[in-house]
Every structure is written in C-alpha cells, then in structure tokens.
C-alpha cells in the first residue's frame, strides 16, 4: 500500500507568512494528489486536485506543485481564516490514502 | 446546491452492526462515484470505501474488508455503508463524499458527518 508522509506535523506561523507543507508518497503516484483544509468540528474542504489545479472558489494564495513522489502545498501569505489542519490525499489503483495532517497554528 | 446528509450513527456494542445513510441532492447522483471517509476522535482522516457511479465496482481499505459494505440506490439518491462486526477502533465520525471525477481528482463535497461509537 502507498503511504503518505506529511511534514511538518505542526507549523507555528504568523499572518502574512509564506507557508509550505510537504507530502511524500512511498511510490510514484504521478499527479494524483489532492489537498484539503479542515477546521475543528467541520468536514474537510477540497483546495487542490491533480497536484496543482485549484478548486473553484479557493483563493489564489493557495497553490500546489509536484509529481511522482514529492508534493508541496504553498500558502503565499497566510490569512487569519487559514489557521487549520491540512491533509494530502493520494489516489492510485483504486486505493486512496491521506497523509497524517499538518496543523497550522498561530505563533 | 450540493448537499450530503449522513444519518444512522450512534452507539453500538463491539461485534454489532450499523447502517449509515447519506442522502444526496443538488447534483446528478447517478453520475458520480461516492466515498466514505472516517475520522477517529482527535485523529486524522482515513479513507474507508468508494463505489463507482453505477455501483459496478467497490473498493475498501484493508481494515474494513469483509466487514463493511458500501452500496447505493440511485433511484433514491442515497449512499449506504453497512458496518458489521464492529470494533472499538471503528469509533469515528463517518463522512460521505462526492467524488470530483473518476476517483482521481479528490472529494469535492462532503457531508457534515455522523458519529459512530463502538463501546460496551
């Protein structure tokens, strides 16, 4: 099974900071990767799919890149609404796996 | 607008059964694959199962194979998850989700979740 490893687990940042979260796959998944944002007590929200395509309605400060085994989610200038936990999710051969999550908290 | 509403959660004893439902509206349900994803208290997300738009193929995470069954009724716009032989480690909030496209482009709409507690 493909394992997804996110880093870091926690990120302490300030409003306006540039934020980068990394997700590594245990084997190549081409560009079959999505990123989600989840706030406490709420369902996840799709931010990016196919590694770099921004979901409709998602602010352009979010971007994704990568292919193969290494992927990044970047928030260009963190806004107060962006404090949340972020998950990557891979798709390969009809299995789907989430990373363990990265909590973005206020410094 | 797209709405997904889960129901059927509750408290069940180990070894017991429960059936979750997810009522869909606001989109052509019969055209999209659907997922179940769960989240144990204080933990991360875990994908549980996927069913193709027509119910022809179903896929499961290893930990629920043989115990859980995903199904759908396209005439009722409803997704189901039959959970048997429940274990304490199945305790979680269960979310249903609409697949964005062919299983390979993420889950673009989610329900609010329904809590399942497996405890004696």
Number of helices of chain B: 0
Instruction: Say how many strands of chain B there are.
Output: 11
Query: How does the helix and strand content of chain B classify structurally?
Result: mainly beta
Write down the Rg of chain A: 13 Å
Shape of chain A: globular
N→C terminal distance of chain A: 36 Å
- Rg of chain B is 13 Å
Biggest beta-sheet profile of chain A: 7 strands, mixed
For the record, give the distance between the C-alpha atoms at the N and C termini of chain B, rounded to a whole number: 40 Å
Global morphology of chain B: globular
What does the average pLDDT of chain A come to?
A: 96
Low-confidence stretches of chain A: none
Write down the secondary-structure element order of chain A: EEEEEEEEEEE
Taken as a percent bin, the fraction of beta residues of chain A is: over 45%
Order of helices and strands of chain B: EEEEEEEEEEE
Number of strands of chain A: 11
Beta strand % of chain B: over 45%
* Assembly level: heterodimer
Question: Mean of residue pLDDT of chain B?
Answer: 96
Describe this protein's structure:
The complex is a heterodimer of chains A (107) and B (120). In chain A, 0% of the residues lie in helices and 53% in strands. Chain A is built from no helices and 11 strands. Chain A has strands at residues 4-7, 10-13, 19-25, 33-38, 45-49, 53-54, 62-67, 70-75, 85-92, 95-98, 102-106. In chain A, the strands form 2 sheets. In chain A, strands 2, 4, 5, 6, 9, 10 and 11 form a 7-stranded mixed sheet that branches. Chain A has a 4-stranded antiparallel sheet with strand order 1-3-8-7, with no helix packed on it. In chain A, a hairpin with a 6-residue loop joins strand 4 and strand 5 (45-49). The model of chain A has no long low-confidence stretch (mean pLDDT 96). With 120 residues, chain B is mainly beta. Chain B is built from no helices and 11 strands. The model of chain B has no long low-confidence stretch (mean pLDDT 96). The chains are: A mainly beta (107), B mainly beta (120). Chain A binds chain B through residues 1, 32, 34, 36, 38, 43-46, 48-50, 53, 55, 87, 89, 91, 94-101, and chain B through 35, 37, 44-47, 50, 57, 59, 61-62, 95, 100, 103-108, 110-113.
